[in-house]
Specification:
Layout: H1 9-12, E1 22-23, E2 29-30, H2 35-40, E3 44-55, E4 58-64, E5 73-74, H3 86-98, E6 101-115, E7 120-133, E8 142-148, H4 161-169, E9 174-181, E10 185-193
Parallel strand pairs: 3-7, 6-9
Antiparallel strand pairs: 1-2, 3-4, 4-5, 4-8, 6-7, 9-10
The protein binds ligand 6U4.
Length: about 200
């Protein structure tokens, strides 16, 4: 049995008799006594960037060669370091993973990801990059390739991508939350268009 904090307890908890135990959708058990403190305890949050590079009717994706999301086509990004802003992290990660130097970044979305049974919440800041210098090069982490906007390989990507890419491609800002079971199944999600992003 694991004891952990979970943000979805309010909807998901169910009790067996008095002193037992709820199982939330992330597979986290709690006792009734612990419920309140869990509500007050946020999951550990890690901030990531995701730079989406595009030119007329085409989108640059990278095939992740190792690590988290290996084997999937994705935008370029990674963890924001302690000594940098989110935008600085986005520029650094894009250059490390593709060789491109972003000249202009526009934040277009914020996505949160949770994985059932894992207390870490990923906060991913998504940027649109239309001005950059350099040519895409294969790096240790990524193999870049241009795709036409009507030929995006969604079946080899994170399952959430097919949901929010259409908003991104038409220039609409968005916020989303996705709860995953493993890396291939979305248990629940919300996705909303927004006027402004922080
Ligand atoms: N469900 C999801 N859908 C999506 O489109 N992108 C996701 C995603 N979950 C994570 N990402 C992105 C965010 C980020 O750009 C990337 C994961 O970053 P990485 O693990 O590659 O970070 P780092 O390169 O900093 O890690 P290390 O090199 O292992 O320290 O995948």
């Amino acid at each position: 049995m694991s004891f952990n904090n979970c943000r979805c307890l309010i909807q998901q908890i169910s009790y067996k008799q008095d002193r037992v135990l709820g199982l939330c959708s992330r597979g986290v058990y709690v006792t009734k006594k612990q419920k309140l403190s869990y509500f007050q305890m946020p999951a550990t949050r890690k901030v990531f960037t995701l730079a989406m590079v595009r030119k007329t009717n085409s989108l640059l994706l990278g095939l992740k060669k190792k690590g988290f999301g290996e084997g999937k086509w994705n935008g370029f990004g990674g963890k924001v370091e302690k000594d940098e802003t989110v935008s600085e992290g986005a520029v650094r990660e894009l250059e490390e993973e593709s060789g491109l130097v972003a000249k202009c970044l526009r934040k277009i979305g914020i996505l949160e990801f949770e994985f059932a049974g894992d207390p870490v919440l990923l906060e991913v800041h998504v940027f649109d990059v239309t001005h950059y210098e350099g040519e895409p090069v294969e790096t240790e982490e990524m193999l870049p390739q241009w795709f036409p906007e009507d030929g995006i390989p969604y079946d080899q990507m994170w399952p959430d991508d097919i949901l929010w890419y259409p908003l991104y491609l038409k220039g609409t800002k968005f916020k989303g939350y996705f709860l995953y079971q493993g890396h291939d199944t979305i248990l629940e999600y919300t996705l909303t268009q927004v006027e402004h992003l922080p």
